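Quick one, probably user error.
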């Protein structure tokens, strides 16, 4: 069996694998797609000490770093089920979709998350060409431009407030007739001179010139009339879905489906730790995920010492 088995090969999983392997214990990492979300990213400008890199380059740097240690890398393997240990210091089992089964003294879950998309024409075409899901990552690219934020929950309204300080103008677009964000955020947004709010509005298409976003069309749900908004950026903020469906019933999840962890990365199951975007950690960013992966690996190692393994 593995001493530490990491499930997920994004920044959090890679950091966990490196930290575990450096303790000289038997470490494995199983990932559906090594690299994770960064593979879908263009510019990365906020990983501290690296002023600029690109997603695919960062993704292969993660893999190269893990390969420098004797980590058993199982790429293109999707975990389908976690079976907690039968006894207090027993082995945790991870069943893979391929039918194989892996046993480990400790497991680190780092399966990340995915952004919910609008599913309208143009959204995929202009992804990373004006359509974005991360205001912390891409806000500065739209300095002085006009943008829209889709979604009136806390993350959408926070994004609109944040962007209003950078861009020329921001329009918040909400499907419902009311915003769901906290009152204090709504008041703040409404007080800003360069922010508008469209309620009862359905985004119908992202428009572009072939290279980048030029606008979006929407339908006013009270009149059914169609309108066009001239903008250069669309920030989609309608939900981040953790990749944890396969854990329901085995590990405690929050009401948003995030793996509940404490400040050491411990989950509700003994010997099972978690890190990164799949957890209840408040902010979803590469540097945060990597730090959480290190935390989870050190916690797993601490458990191994206490249960007399290494
Ligand atoms: P992920 O990167 O999501 O990795 C999850 C891993 O788990 C993957 O290997 C996946 O294949 C695997 N996996 C999932 N389910 C299973 C399963 N059942 N079995 C096995 N493996 C599984 N953050 C920044 O800090 N700066 C940026 O500039 C930035 N730009 C971004 C741009 C885009 C387009 C996107 C989508 C995100 C961006 N982010 C950025 C966010 C950042 O990518 C994430 O916060 C970070 O990747 C989270 O790392 P993670 O390891 O927790 O999860």
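Nope, works fine. Designed sequence:
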């Amino acid at each position: 069996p593995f001493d530490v088995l990491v499930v997920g090969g994004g920044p959090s999983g890679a950091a966990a694998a490196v930290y575990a392997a450096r303790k000289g214990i038997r470490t494995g990492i199983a990932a559906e797609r090594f690299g994770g979300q960064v593979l879908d990213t263009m510019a990365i400008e906020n990983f501290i000490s690296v002023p600029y890199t690109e997603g695919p380059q960062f993704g292969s740097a993660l893999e190269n770093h893990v390969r420098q240690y004797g980590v058993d890398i199982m790429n293109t393997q999707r975990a389908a089920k976690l079976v907690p240990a039968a006894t207090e210091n027993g082995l945790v089992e991870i069943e893979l979709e391929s039918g194989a089964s892996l046993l480990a003294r400790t497991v680190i879950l780092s399966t990340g998350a995915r952004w919910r998309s609008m599913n309208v024409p143009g959204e995929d075409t202009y992804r990373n060409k004006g359509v974005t899901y991360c205001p912390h990552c891409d806000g500065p690219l739209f300095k002085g431009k006009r943008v829209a934020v889709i979604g009136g929950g806390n993350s959408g309204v926070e994004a609109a407030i944040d962007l209003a300080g950078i861009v020329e103008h921001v329009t918040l677009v909400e499907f419902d007739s009311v915003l769901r964000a906290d009152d204090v955020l709504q008041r703040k947004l409404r007080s800003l001179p360069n922010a508008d709010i469209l309620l009862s509005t359905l985004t119908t298409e992202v428009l572009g010139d072939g290279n980048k976003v030029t606008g979006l069309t929407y339908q006013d749900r009270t009149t059914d009339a169609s309108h066009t908004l001239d903008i250069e950026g669309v920030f989609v903020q309608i939900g981040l879905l953790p990749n944890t469906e396969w854990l329901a019933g085995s590990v405690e999840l929050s009401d948003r489906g995030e793996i509940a962890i404490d400040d050491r990365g411990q989950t509700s199951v003994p010997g099972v730790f978690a890190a990164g975007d799949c957890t209840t950690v408040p902010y979803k960013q590469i540097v945060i995920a990597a730090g959480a992966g290190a935390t989870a690996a050190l916690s797993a190692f601490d458990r191994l010492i206490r249960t007399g393994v290494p």
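Residues 7-13, 30-34, 36-38, 40-41, 44, 46, 78-79, 110-113, 115, 133-134, 137, 243, 246, 276-277, 284-287, 289 surround flavin-adenine dinucleotide (CB under 6 Å).
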